[in-house]
Amino acid sequence: MIEFRSVGKTYPDGTIAVADFSLIAPSGRTTVLVGSSGCGKTTLLRMVNRMVSPTSGSVWIDDLDVATTDPVALRRRIGYVMQNAGLLPHRKVIDNIATVPRLTGVSKAAAHVRALELMDLVGLDRAMAGRYPGQLSGGQQQRVGVARGLAADPNILLMDEPFGAVDPIVRAELQQELLRLQRELHKTILFITHDISEALLLGDQIVILRRGADIAQAGSGLEIIARPADEFVAEFVGLGGERQLDIRRVGDVEIVLDGSGRPLGQVSARS
Amino acid sequence: MTWVLANLGLIAERSWSHLGLAVPAIVAAFALSVPIGWFAQRFRWSRAAVLSLAGLLYAIPSLPLFILLPTVIGTSVRDRLNVIAALTLYGVALMVRSVADALDAVGQEVVGAATALGYPAWRRFLGVELPLAGPILLAGLRVVAVSTISLVTVSALLGVSSLGMLFTDGFQRGIIAEVITGIVATVVLALAVDGLLVLGGQILMPWTRRTR
Ligand SMILES: Nc1ncnc2c1ncn2[C@@H]1O[C@H](COP(=O)(O)OP(=O)(O)OP(=O)(O)O)[C@@H](O)[C@H]1O
Ligand SMILES: [Mg+2]
After folding, report:
1. A199 near A35, Cβ under 8 Å?
2. What is the pTM of this model?
3. ipTM of the assembly?
4. d(Cα B99, Cα B125) in Å, to the nearest integer?
5. Is the CB of A243 under 6 A from ligand 1?
6. A52 touches chain B (CB under 8 A)
7. pLDDT digits over A40-73, tens only?
8. What are phi and psi of B122, to 5 degrees?
């Protein structure tokens, strides 16, 4: 479990990135932080592994205040997947994946065996092991990033717009992979996106943020779509627009139309 | 040409002494410049001062330096160590700025990524920042290497053996072929060392070779 207790962050230049934020991200679940650019998502995420220290409040992992931990050790036991993968360009794919185990003293041979297994897990051809990141496509790099995040078998995975830089088809593929992985691994995932569809697909808990990491609404996708807290949320999730659907009866079937009247599909018959 | 063929042994011996002065100076200059350049890059307040000071070393005329340095480091003027120390100073003058620039050029994103993975600062420097600074470091080192090899010749005026002695001796005895040989051999040596550095760079930095 990750708990934010009234955290705030004002950067030295006076920017208030996070005003006063409290949240519990339950263990084994995916919590998605969603909001427009600059609303403080990355700042929140980086508080968890102490890449950013809050100027007020505290962050807890289970019953441990992260401020009291050794940052280097903390980071090694938290998986972190960055936008653009953040791979080390001078190290081969296999060594990138093996980075954290190697840092913690696992032998090279053992770390490589594990790295190859992880490549299978995230759907990367083992033949890529000897390549450098610059020789991979964006989607392959993201997979390496995810494999690297999982290498030390952390309980917590922080993912900062991990699929933001790839095309929609590859993104859809990566999202499905993540869902499959999560069904197997049950990590505590804190996932950032500004794509509400991605949030609805991946999130057990979705947190919609306004500027200053002000929570507009937190809940399951179902709750948010059924009962948006206010205008801002309704508009953000596309109610009143693309996600405002209509049901129309045509003969003895009901079909669903999107906001502009395009048919999307049929409602399945309920007995 | 006949002079060259008749004196191959001498040329080889002089080339060998030449390298014996240049290589230790190049290595020492690099080894000293990395921590100094790191300091200047890391502590921004010191940057301008450190880089200007290092650059100023280059303004010291070489002959007086060769003669004055022994009074500081306690060697004799003809001592090879004296020559190596002076050349090292010139190398540092050129290299420190390269180190600072090379470290500047390492992407903040990669450094942040390494930190987030749990690299302690020193390991991140040696394992991530320094190798990624490699291409610009190498460019700087090549300039240092070539300039050092050419500067070594000045030490012939002090009577220290190097290819430079081929010109001094050639001038004194009026053997034009010997003078030309000295110049050509120095250039060839510089090119050879430069080539080795490029090759070494490709071996040590395989990720900079695009193979796709
Ligand atoms: N190191 C910093 N110094 C000063 N201001 C910063 C710093 N990092 C972020 N900020 C500011 O803090 C605010 C929140 O930034 P943050 O990166 O957390 O946003 P974000 O929600 O992740 O945005 P995006 O979706 O664009 O990644 C922004 O206004 C940003 O300009
Ligand atoms: Mg961000």
Report:
1. no
2. 0.88
3. 0.88
4. 13
5. no
6. no
7. 999 999 999 999 999 999 999 999 999 999 999 9
8. -70, -35
